[in-house]
């Protein structure tokens, strides 16, 4: 069966008009912001949000403000035709793919910044990254005004920051978290996985294996947490990672560092570099008080 064509809009005024018409017709609207190069992690977010709302908007915008000067903005994979095919098959109602001027017109001067929870973890090696994320997501949510927005557990710090942002700024969008999706070999699915050579991919697989080990040892509570983390970091470096940027246990609700005992729902989070590719991943630690809710 041929899927119905999906509407594609590139201007914020057209997006507003369409979403307003849906709202006037009594329909609820969900948004999944992405940077494109869509994979089954993104498509699982689409399937998830379809359970909550009548109409689904996916945005594709490779946001220059969230890339550092030495990062991969120029080579970030861009494949709009393939993305359109996947979204059409996924029965997405509308693709919003704005030109940069729709997001950052000449004379744009504003920066949206969340404090505290944007310190450490990914922020330590990516100064300015979260300001780029919070600025663009504020713009996308205000341009669309969805009832619900879905962000992936894969970028857990980002999800936590965006939940805080919408709460603090009274943006009338409910932020929810979609389950982290992995490739069959266990590697967290990412648009950046295409950069990995077969050798690098083999090394990369040590990330989920090591996280599982940390989760197990942290839940057992035999060794001090710092010892568990130090051993895991050494293991990753021995396996061939160029750098382990962080490997930490944080509380799930507010990302507070966990150093001694785990007394609240927590997770282990990692960023590590193999070759020229930076990978992130995280896992919840069970056997402690109830874990944070993901949507599936
Ligand atoms: P990106 O296009 O990488 O900016 O990601 C767009 C959204 O998809 C973000 O909310 C990510 O957290 C989410 N996402 C990316 N990879 C995955 C994955 N493997 N599983 C679940 N969500 C993901």
Specify the CATH class of the largest domain.
Alpha Beta
CATH topology title of the largest domain = Rossmann fold
What string, H for helix and E for strand, traces the elements in order? EHEHEHEHHHEHEHHHEEE
Share in helix = 25-40%
Radius of gyration: 19 Å
What's the structural domain tally?
A: 2
Summarize the structure.
By secondary structure, the protein is an alpha/beta fold. It has helices at residues 12-24, 40-50, 80-89, 100-103, 122-125, 129-144, 156-168, 198-204, 206-220, 225-239; strands at residues 7-9, 29-34, 55-60, 94-96, 148-152, 174-178, 243-251, 266-274, 277-285. The two termini are 28 Å apart.
Structure notes:
The chain has 296 residues and is α/β, with parallel strands linked by helices. It folds into 2 domains: 7-178, HUPs (Rossmann fold, 3-Layer(aba) Sandwich), CATH 3.40.50; 191-285, Pantoate--beta-alanine Ligase, Chain: A,domain 2 (2-Layer Sandwich), CATH 3.30.1300.10. Helices cover 36% and strands 19% of the residues. The chain contains 10 helices and 9 strands. The chain has helices spanning 12-24, 40-50, 80-89, 100-103, 122-125, 129-144, 156-168, 198-204, 206-220, 225-239, and strands at 7-9, 29-34, 55-60, 94-96, 148-152, 174-178, 243-251, 266-274, 277-285. The strands form 2 sheets. It has a 6-stranded parallel beta sheet. It has a 3-stranded antiparallel beta sheet with strand order 7-8-9. Helix 2 (40-50) links the parallel strand 2 (29-34) and strand 3. Helix 6 (129-144) crosses helix 7 (156-168) and helix 9 (206-220) packs antiparallel against helix 10 (225-239). The longest helix is centred in the middle third of the chain and has 16 residues, at 129-144. It is globular and about 60 Å long. The model has no long low-confidence stretch (mean pLDDT 95). Adenosine monophosphate is lined by residues 34-35, 41-42, 45, 151-155, 178, 180-181, 188-191.
């Amino acid at each position: 069966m041929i899927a119905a064509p999906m509407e594609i809009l590139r201007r914020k005024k057209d997006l507003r008009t369409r979403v307003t018409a849906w709202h006037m017709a009594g329909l609820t609207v969900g948004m999944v912001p992405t940077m494109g190069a869509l994979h089954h992690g993104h498509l699982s977010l689409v399937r998830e949000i379809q359970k909550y709302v009548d109409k689904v908007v996916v945005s594709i915008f490779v946001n220059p403000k969230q890339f550092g000067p030495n990062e991969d903005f120029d080579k970030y994979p861009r494949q709009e035709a393939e993305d359109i095919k996947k979204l059409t098959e996924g029965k997405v109602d509308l693709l919003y793919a704005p030109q940069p001027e729709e997001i950052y017109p000449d004379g744009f001067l504003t920066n949206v910044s969340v404090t505290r929870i944007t310190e450490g973890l990914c922020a330590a090696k990516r100064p300015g990254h979260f300001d780029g994320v919070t600025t663009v997501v504020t713009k996308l949510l205000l341009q669309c005004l969805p009832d619900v927005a879905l962000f992936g557990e894969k970028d857990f710090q980002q999800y936590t920051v965006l939940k805080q942002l919408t709460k603090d700024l009274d943006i009338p969008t409910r932020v929810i978290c979609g389950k982290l999706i992995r490739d069959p070999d266990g590697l967290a699915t990412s648009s950046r996985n295409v950069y990995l050579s077969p050798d690098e991919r083999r090394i990369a697989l040590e990330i989920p294996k090591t996280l599982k080990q940390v989760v197990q040892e942290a839940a057992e509570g035999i060794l001090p947490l710092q010892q568990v983390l130090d051993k895991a970091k050494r293991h990753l470096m021995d396996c061939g990672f160029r750098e382990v940027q962080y490997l930490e246990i944080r509380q799930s609700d507010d990302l507070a560092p966990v150093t001694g005992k785990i007394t609240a729902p927590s997770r282990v989070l990692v960023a590590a570099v193999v070759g020229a590719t930076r990978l992130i991943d995280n896992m919840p630690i069970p056997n402690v008080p109830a874990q944070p809710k993901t949507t599936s």
